[in-house]
Amino acid sequence: MLQDEKYQEQIQRIFAKYPDKRSAVMPLLYLAQEAYGWLPEEALDEVAELCDIDPTQVKSIAGFYTMYRETPKGKYWLQVCTDLPCALRGADQFYEELKAYLEVEEGGTTEDGLFTVEHVMCLAACDRAPMLQCNFHYMENLDMDKMRAWIEERRAEAREKEQKS
Amino acid sequence: MSEVTIYIDGQEYRVPANTNLVDVAKFYADNDIPVFCYHPKMAPVGMCRMCLVKMGSVEKNRETGEVVTDENGNPKIRWFPKLQTACTQTVYDGLAIITNSEEVQVARDDIIEFILTSHPLDCPICDKGGECPLQNLTMRHGPGQSVFYYEDKMHLDKHVPLGELIYLDRERCIQCARCTRFCDELVGDDVLAFHERGRRLQIVTISDPPFDTKFSGNTTDICPVGALTTADFRFGARPWELKEVPSLDPYGPEGANISLSTRLDRDAGGRIVIKRVMPRQNEYVNEIWISDKTRFGHHHTRSDERLTKPLIRQNGQLAEASWEEAYQVITDRLRAAKSLGVIAGPNQSNEDLWELKQLASHVENHHLGVFPATMSGGDIVNTVGVGVGTNFLDLKKGDVIVVVASDLEEEAPIWYLRTKVARDRGVKLVLLNARPTKLSKYAKYNLTYAYGDAVSAINSLISAVIGAGKINDEILSRVDGYDELAKSVKKPAYTNFTEAAEAIGDAQNMIVLAGSEGLTLAQQRELMQACANLLIVTGHVGRPNNGLIPVWHGANIQGAYDLGFTAEATEAIYQESLDVVLVAGCNPVGEVVEAEALQNANFVVVTSLFETETTAIADVVLPRQSFAERDGTFTSGERRVQRFYTAQGVIGESLPDWRIFAEIHYRLGGPKPKLSAGAVMAEINKAVPSYAEMRYKKLAEMPRQFPDVGGEDLYYGGTAYQNRGGIGQQTPTVAEDPEARLSVRPVEAMTPKFDGLVVIPTTLLYDRGVLFRRSTLMHQRIPAPHIVINPEDAEAQGITDGDTVAIVVEGHRYEVQVKIDKTLPRGAVLMPRRLSNRPDPSVPTVLESIEKIVQPVPVTEG
Question: Tell me, what's the ipTM?
Answer without folding.
Answer: 0.80
